[in-house]
Amino acid sequence: MSHMEHKGNSWHENCFTCNRCQQPIGTRSFVLKDANNYCLSCYEKQFALQCVHCKKPITTGGVNYRDQPWHKECFVCIGCKQQLAGQRFTSRDDFAYCLDCFCNLFAKKCAYCTTPISGLGGSKYISFEQRQWHNSCFNCKRCCVSLVGRGFLTCKDDILCPDCGKDF
């Protein structure tokens, strides 16, 4: 009958068992915890954090979001499924979004270029009567001069500087 040795202790092969499932560990990987030996699957079941998304044990590289454990590969944007670990992201109604998806779904759209106005990173924008513009898009429709911080007139959907607006 062969025997097992680990850190100066010896066991009969049949006596070197997992503390949880009582199966012989043999040459399989095991974890020593609180002076007990556990086969890897029992150790994971008993001690590893469970991913809140897939319910499987997290053995390496987990992510903590809102005090809940996730696998990196499970913590993804609800829109495009891109991994969010290590990325800038935001949330709404308990769902996590990458910035692109969040802006496309929820951000105000510029009245001139129609792309989202994120407001993230301190980007400034102009708001007037239910319409918004990026600062760089807030220009006179006729002469293209910037109207940021200046007086302006509206003519239907257009914005005009006072010089161009005096013809209307």
How would you explain this protein's 3D organization?
The chain has 168 residues and is mainly β. It has 3 domains: 45 residues, Cysteine Rich Protein (Ribbon), CATH 2.10.110.10; 44 residues, Cysteine Rich Protein; 60 residues, Ribbon (Cysteine Rich Protein), CATH 2.10.110. The chain is 12% helix and 32% strand. It contains 3 helices and 16 strands. The strands form 8 sheets. A two-stranded antiparallel ribbon has the order 1-2. Strands 3-4 form a two-stranded antiparallel sheet. It has a two-stranded antiparallel ribbon with strand order 5-6. A hairpin with a 6-residue loop joins β11 and β12. The mean pLDDT is 87. It comes from Lates calcarifer (Barramundi).
Task: Detail the topology: elements first, then pairings.
Blueprint lengths: L2 E4 L2 E4 L17 E4 L2 E4 H8 L1 E2 L6 E2 L3 E4 L2 E4 L17 E4 L2 E4 H8 L1 E2 L6 E2 L7 E4 L2 E4 L18 E3 L2 E3 L1 H4 L3
Antiparallel strand pairs: 1-2, 3-4, 5-6, 7-8, 9-10, 11-12, 13-14, 15-16
Shape: rod-shaped
Strand order of the largest sheet: 1-2
User: How big a fraction of the residues is strand?
Assistant: 25-35%
Taking pLDDT < 50 over at least 5 consecutive residues as the criterion, the unreliable ranges are none
In angstroms, what separates the terminal alpha carbons?
104 Å
- Tell me the domain tally: 3
Specify the CATH architecture of the largest domain.
Ribbon
The count of helical stretches stands at 3
Largest sheet: 2 strands, antiparallel
CATH topology name of the largest domain, in short, is Cysteine Rich Protein
Oligomeric assembly: single chain
CATH level-four homologous superfamily name of the largest domain: Cysteine Rich Protein
For this structure, what is the CATH class of the largest domain? Mainly Beta
* Structural class estimated from helices and strands: mainly beta
N-to-C series of helices and strands:
EEEEHEEEEEEHEEEEEEH
The overall average pLDDT, rounded, is 87
Proportion in helices: 10-25%
